[in-house]
Amino acid sequence: MSFKFESGSFRDRNSRVFYKNNMLFRCLNEKALEEWETLSSTNFFTRFMGAGKLIPTERIEKPSQFDAKLDGDWAAILNHKLIPFISYPYEWPFGMLKEAALLQLELLIASLEENMILKDSSPFNFQWVGAKPVFIDIPSFERLRPGEAWVGYRQFCKLFLYPLFLQSYKDIPFHPWLRGSIDGIEPEYCNSLISLRDLFRPGVFTHVYLQHKLQVKYANAQKDVKGILNSVGFNKDLIRANVCRLKKVVSGLSWKRTKSEWSHYAKDNTYTDMDNEKKAAFVRSVSTSQKWNLVWDLGCNTGVFSKIAAESGSYVIAMDADHQAIDRLYEELKVERNGSILSLVNNLADPSPNLGWRGLERKSLPVRGKPDLILCLALLHHVVITANIPLKEFIEWIASLGASLVIEFVTKEDPMVTRLLQNKEDNYSDYEIMYFEQTLSEAFDVIRREELMFGMRILYFARSRK
Amino acid sequence: MNIFGLSFFLAPPAHAYLDPGTGSMLLQILLGGIAGLVVVFKLYWHRFLALFRKNKDKEDNPQ
What we know:
The structure holds two protein chains of two kinds.
Chain A: E1 15-20, E2 23-28, H1 30-40, H2 43-50, E3 57-59, H3 64-67, E4 76-80, H4 94-113, E5 116-118, E6 126-129, E7 132-135, E8 141-143, H5 153-170, H6 175-180, H7 187-193, H8 204-217, H9 222-232, H10 236-251, H11 265-268, H12 273-289, E9 294-298, H13 304-311, E10 315-320, H14 323-336, E11 341-345, H15 365-368, E12 373-376, H16 380-386, H17 391-400, E13 404-410, H18 415-421, H19 433-443, E14 444-452, E15 457-464
Parallel strand pairs in A: 9-10, 9-12, 10-11, 12-13
Antiparallel strand pairs in A: 1-2, 2-4, 3-4, 5-8, 6-7, 13-15, 14-15
Helix pairs in contact in A: 4-5, 4-10, 7-8, 12-13, 17-19
Chain B: H1 22-31, H2 33-60
């Protein structure tokens, strides 16, 4: 029986990835093996791996154990450490895309010193362990051939720089763009978006405007001009100069923090101190009651409950549709060098779908790792009233994940909900406590129930029946 | 006959699966600062020399 290669790993013809026994392996052909041998003997490789910025990788001594079962002729096999939970750039807050861009440039500078280069520049080559970025695409490193250009520059602009510019300079979140356009933002479109004012912002005139104009001018002159450029010869210094220049531009980017509805939740919230403590204690008692490997904190907002769940050793995916809240959470986690909480932007009403070739390259959330515990605190009213999702369907979706659940029901008398219903007609007859409890019991075994705020907010812990 | 001559086509084969974009490559040279100037100089030096080669051919073959 042959192993199946990972469906998202096919663009590079020189290596393919597969899983066996909960481990990740990569096959290399002759060409890729040569590059690996050079790479593994460099200093920067050891340094970056030691710092946790490159995925821990080693060559398998006895690849023959796999021979009979793999399709194709491979020269060597590598073993990569597994990432706890895969995520994609269209789920990352601004700060995470910026951090990955900086690491990409840092790796370029370091590899150039030892005559290697990264052949592509894609945020999809990065994953995270908590708030720490890790470069995973080992075969992307190649020996630098004399005179060779930095081929990945344009891709860097399309997938890193322009999305960051969009959010930093124009306050447009890059996520729909990266989710919808697998190759990123074209120079042409980025150029159409920029105003005269933007031309004066760092990096815009050169990397957007000039690049677009030159691209148009030389679009049909490909063969001759490329030949000349290659023979004239790029050199290391030229590439390094450009990479350093980009590093400076990216370092200076920040996202003007617009006030979002929930990012000040912790300050403005209507919970009393006593109720906050009760809620925290409830979550803590559940999270310490047994070992939960993977926890999803849906609508995590400030991440306070994610942090509680992470205390007992779980890996936590902290998700919220609010970019601002997630970006703030990420900045906090980054400072702590947190390795247990992954902060992602995701709208539960429209979560990340299967994307790419055959819908297998980028995977939807549950496919990447089903949680064993879900926290759904102060969220349900948003799902039902704001997003108009029927309560029963939401509970069924949660149940389908097979996880146990901590969920909070906020009644219609509560100010949080009355605010939502202010400008809407109340068609939400399903958003009602008896119906909720009944629906919950049909799908789960309700173990605990606790009231807060004089009964206006109720917490439940429910075990999965699966 | 191409005025730039055959030597310009002994470029190293493109290994990358990505198309780097001609305009993007040119931009890198422009942005490359001093390193870029050297490259630009070499580029025009070759063209400059090639002009002389073209004229010499015309003199040898009056048709």
